[in-house]
Specification:
The protein is mostly helical. It contains nine helices and two strands, in the order αββαααααααα.
Length: about 190
């Protein structure tokens, strides 16, 4: 982590990497490139969702649930728990790498502040608000939390962290299965 903050390492120190003007020779300021990056982001989200859905439905998904619920039993049955964890870690790292590669050109800056614990906490709130047991719940939660973040940081910037904490507590207490659980309950009632 210290390497990111040192100016002589080539990462820009506290300022990070800034001043992205083009991507593969195309200007990042043009509307066509911005729309292309947006479309690429939507396509990457859909592909990541489908990939994760196929993993959850596969044998790897079943074994990963077994590892989550009873790691020692899964190991005792004969599965190599380390291999399962490594496969899931590599998959999540690839998805995060693609997300980062699409994020930086759209925002135009990447600095060490992006590694702050607040960003990890936001992801936890995404999942808690959207729904812990579903893949699409995280997408719903991400959209809702980022909309709230955009609104709060404009209207009441000093309140955003308190609102994020309150959102997490309220989602945990009143929506234990998140918005997706609420939608499923309404769908079952209809």
């Amino acid at each position: 982590m210290l390497a990111f903050f040192r100016n002589e390492m080539g990462f820009g120190g506290n300022n990070g990497l800034t001043d992205f003007k083009d991507l593969l020779g195309f200007s990042l300021q043009s509307d066509g490139v911005r729309m292309g990056l947006f479309v690429a982001t939507v396509v990457a989200l859909m592909l990541a969702y489908l990939l994760c859905r196929s993993v959850v439905a596969s044998r790897l998904g079943a074994v990963s649930v077994a590892v989550r619920d009873a790691e020692s039993r899964t190991r005792f049955v004969g599965y190599k728990v380390e291999h399962v964890k490594l496969a899931l870690f590599v998959l999540s790292a690839v998805i995060a790498g693609v997300a980062g590669a699409l994020y930086v050109p759209q925002v135009g800056i990447i600095n060490p502040g992006e590694f702050s614990p607040l960003n990890s906490i936001e992801v936890v709130v995404w999942v808690a608000l959207g729904g812990r047991a579903t893949l699409f719940g995280a997408v719903i939660g991400a959209l809702l939390v980022n909309y709230a973040k955009s609104w709060f940081t404009v209207e009441f910037p000093e309140v955003w962290l308190f609102a994020l904490g309150a959102l997490f507590v309220l989602a945990t207490v009143y929506l234990p299965k998140g918005v997706s659980g609420l939608l499923r309950k309404q769908e079952a009632a209809a």
